[in-house]
Amino acid sequence: MSEMFDAVDALVASRSSLPSAEERKRLRVAHGLTLDDVAGALQVRRATVSAWESTKKPTEPRGPEREAYARLLKQLAELYPAPVPATFTGAPDPAEAPTLSTGPASEAAVMTSTENTQTPAPAPVAAAPAAAPRPATTTRPSTSRRPGAKKAAPAGTPAGDTDPRFENGPLAVVDVEDGKVLAYCTGGLVLDVPAKSLPSLVDWTLKEAKLGQPKLSGPGRPADPLIVLTEAACERYGLPVSLTAEEKDAGRIPEGHKVVKQLVRADWKLTKRGFGPWARIYRPAKGSDRQCVQLCIPSWNALDARFWGDAAQLPPAELARVLGVYASRVMTPRGSTAVTGLELMTALHPPTYAVRDEETGVLRQAETKTPGSLGKDPVDCAPCEAPDGHPLLKDLPRFTVRGPAEKLFEEAYDWARPMTDAECTLRYLVGLDVNMAFAAGANGLNVGLGEPTHVKNPVFDPKLPGSWLVDLSHVDLSKVKVGKEWVELDGSLLPSPFTPKGDRPTGPAWYATPTVAYAQELGYDVAPIEAWVRYESGRYLDGWYGRLRDAYLATMADLGVDADLSPEDFLAAMDGYKERDPELTIVVSAIKATVKGGLGKLRERPRGEGWRPGERWRALERPTWRPDIRAAVISRTRINLHRKIVKHAAFTGQYPIAILSDCVVYAASGPSPLDFLPYREGKPLPGGFKLGINPGLVKHEGTQTTLWGEEVRERFNAPELNLARSIKDGTVTDVDNGE
User: Fold this and answer.
1) Distance in angstroms (rounded) separating the CA atoms of residues 731 and 55
2) Is the pLDDT of residue 87 over 80?
3) What is the DSSP pairing of strand 447-448 with strand 485-488?
4) How confident is the model over 60-80, as a mean pLDDT?
5) 63-79 and 21-30 are packed helices; what angle lies between their axes, rounded to 10 degrees?
6) Residues 6+ apart with CB under 8 A from 728
7) What are the residues facing 470 on neighbouring strands?
8) Is the pTM of this model over 0.90?
């Protein structure tokens, strides 16, 4: 009889009722659980849990997993009941708006974004290492659009195991609903905001909101709190909802604006960039007491859609989640993704550190720089590394065009060739894309930390970072070393590894160390004529790479794409991953943009401000203005791709048709990468292309027919049209212009 009862219980459990997919996700997030946490407890794959929460086509658990999942959700529902919309009565007093005179800003460290978003760059900050939201308590409100709110705890309130300074997370999205000002924090927390003016909002943020993040490195500083203002919040605090054309060009509202006057009267300062989309409001630090708040105004294009997708249109709770995940895994945003990428480098390697004065006992900045950092003072680049218009080139005649023997030109690939007759008989063109290619290029790279030294007739040292003038025209790709063996290839079907356009060098040219080292690796001698080398060096970008790699892998794992999938499962998991959680997809895009933008900022160009060729521009005053580091990363990234191409050609006889940056296109008999990649029993060609989500591995970028490729090249009368540019969706609107 007992066996019969057990069977009946199991039958009932197999039909346990479950809440909607949206509610399942809400309960998990409210308790601070990741997909990994739930999958581990239920002994299923992360992708399975993600499918149970899919709002489009949720799958239903079966068998014992369903019973356990139902039990989990029931317990979470008791802790976090579904919110009841609150009814607010009355409205706070209107925002204060006194008319005040403005004063000069005193903070000098500023930065402009490579996305043309003007932003400042004061002292480095850090982010919390935890990726998941802080576990909730029974009093924590939900992430609902209109939850009940609680008041921020007074400063000094104990916070259990959490850091009491940052109890409520790194940031808050401030919105106004039914006349009430609310701050949506990470993990579903919603706070009442009593502030009636922007200066009082800054005070509240620093004294009561308990926002911020711990420092990333020992000598660093905690992250300043980030406040995101919705359109309704802008109106409430006297700010325009959008900028005029003139204000967009200036990157700020006028200094005479009433809100700026309010801040000045309250003894708050703005950086020299003024009050723009990413405004920094601060008071000069007193000892270790730092008073600074970062503002983000999405309606002023702070969250550029090219890198943040439709984040600016998200409701406050969802926006807090997107920015919170990014903050916890990368760092609290300090501006555009490019600015944040650069700030992450500094946060991981602060230029200096604090020491205690032996006589006074007061902390002060050390005179020496932090080991492994770039220091606090800028250094000039070598003349060959200087971009056009740099002060080092001011004595050159006007309109001088420097050639490869005068200028270091390390850039990503933009190369294509006509298809062979044999390739035209194949039905498909398949694109492969290298995951986080430039981040992978930075990993383990030895870069210069100090100023360059000029050397004549040097002996090339592959371990010494620098720029080398050397003739590599003798390197013949038809016969190269692959490993220890010499192999013969069809050099006419390969791009040169030494130039972005794939053209074979015709004489001496400037190259970064990884490019010259690759010439040696291919089996050829090199004899530099001169060089600018940096004897003080280190793997400055290793921590930066590791932080961004982990952020990328964790977020892709939450989207159901694991790092240990088989090639077939990986391709299946990548199919439609963006629809599984559009908010996390935004985070992935922002992480990628942080990599490329951060490296781009290493050679930031002048942006207006009356600059003329030969004059210094603002970015040159940063120790992180380092075009040599950018060149080394790009050089190594291009060489990494060429090495895989050569390995593949030597083993399979297949050659690329087009390459654009980190995307390479091959002709194949089938539409899948597995139709031409030489996998054997699930194992890839050593040193060749390997499918997977880790940085440096490849994913399927897209497939088009060979007829499509020939047709668009014929239509535009461009036999070398770069098909990698449009392999993803097949859209070609004009002849290649290199953009």
Assistant:
1) 30
2) no
3) unpaired
4) 84
5) 60
6) 431, 701, 702
7) 509
8) no
Report how far residue 688's alpha carbon sits from residue 393's, in angstroms, rounded to the nearest whole number: 42
Do 187 and 134 touch, CB atoms closer than 8 A?
A: yes
Average pLDDT value over all residues in the chain:
86
> Cα–Cα distances in Å, from 651 out to 266, 300, 518, 644?
70, 53, 19, 11
Query: How is residue 225 annotated by DSSP?
Result: P
Single-letter amino acid, residue 200: S
* Across 550-569, average pLDDT: 96
Q: How far apart are CA 242 and CA 235, in angstroms?
A: 10
Q: How many Å apart are CA 354 and CA 367, to the nearest integer? A: 9
Find the mean pLDDT for residues 378-385. 96
pLDDT reading at 124 higher than 50: no
Is it the case that residue 132 has pLDDT exceeding 90? no
Overall residue count recorded for the chain in this entry? 739
Q: At what angle do helices 198-207 and 258-265 cross, to 10 degrees?
A: 50
Residue 194 region by backbone torsions, left for phi larger than 0, else alpha for psi between -120 and 50, else beta: alpha
CB of 85 within 8 A of CB of 148? Answer: no
Please report which helix (H) or strand (E) contains residue 307, including its range: helix 305-308
For the chain, what percent of residues have pLDDT higher than 90? Answer: 69
Burial class of residue 262 in the structure, from the number of CB atoms within 10 Å of its CB (0-12 exposed, 13-18 middle, 19+ buried)? buried
SS3 344: helix
Band of residue 17 on the pLDDT scale cut at 50, 70, 90: confident
Point out the least confidently predicted range of 4-13, 606-615, 630-639. 4-13
Tell me the sheet residues that pair with 364: 355
190: left (phi over 0), alpha (psi -120 to 50) or beta: beta
pLDDT tens-digit map of 651-675: 999 999 999 999 999 999 999 999 9
Q: Which amino acid is at 216?
A: L
The answer to whether residues 28 and 53 touch, using CB atoms and an 8 Å cutoff, is yes
Amino acid letter for position 615: E
Q: Rounded to the nearest 10 degrees, what angle do helices 542-558 and 582-601 cross at? A: 160
What pLDDT sits at residue 148? 47
What DSSP letter does each residue of 616-651 carry, written as one string?
--GGGGSTT--HHHHHHHHHHHHHHHHHHHHHHHHH
pLDDT at 46: 78
Q: In sequence order, which residues have a C-beta less than 8 Å from that of residue 531 and are 6 or more positions away?
A: 454, 455, 458, 466, 467, 468, 469
Question: Could you give the maximum distance between any two Cα atoms of the chain, in Å?
Answer: 100
The bridge status of strand 226-229 relative to strand 289-296 is parallel
Helix (H) or strand (E) holding 199: helix 198-207
User: Which residue reads 């019973």 in tokens?
Assistant: 67
